[in-house]
Amino acid sequence: MRTRKVILLPKMEKTLVQVGENIKLARLRRKLSTEQIAERANISRPTLWNIEKGAGGVAIAAYAQVLFVLGLEKDLLKLAGDDPLGRKLQDAELIVKERAPKTSKKNG
């Protein structure tokens, strides 16, 4: 079975790169090597390198494992935690109006 390559929009690519940099900085602050993190997260070093580069092809579970090893797993709860647009739509209780029936034109 062939897998499809996910094509990311440039804005999303920049976001993943920033996430990768944040993870790398967290690792460096803790003075942990890539080997230590990869072993503890049960992933390969190349996968960790891809995470730190912000590669889009890495499973979110691998990101979660690395965050757990770094003690940052609660950061995952912040994802989509605040949904201002969704709350506004919910508060407005937008109702989709039904389309008016077509009127028949009489020839005459």
From TrEMBL:
Transmembrane segments: none annotated. Pfam families: HTH_31. It comes from the Bacteria. CDD domains: HTH_XRE. InterPro entries: Cro/C1-type_HTH, Lambda_DNA-bd_dom_sf. Residues 23-77 form the HTH cro/C1-type domain. GO terms for molecular function: DNA binding. This is Transcriptional regulator.
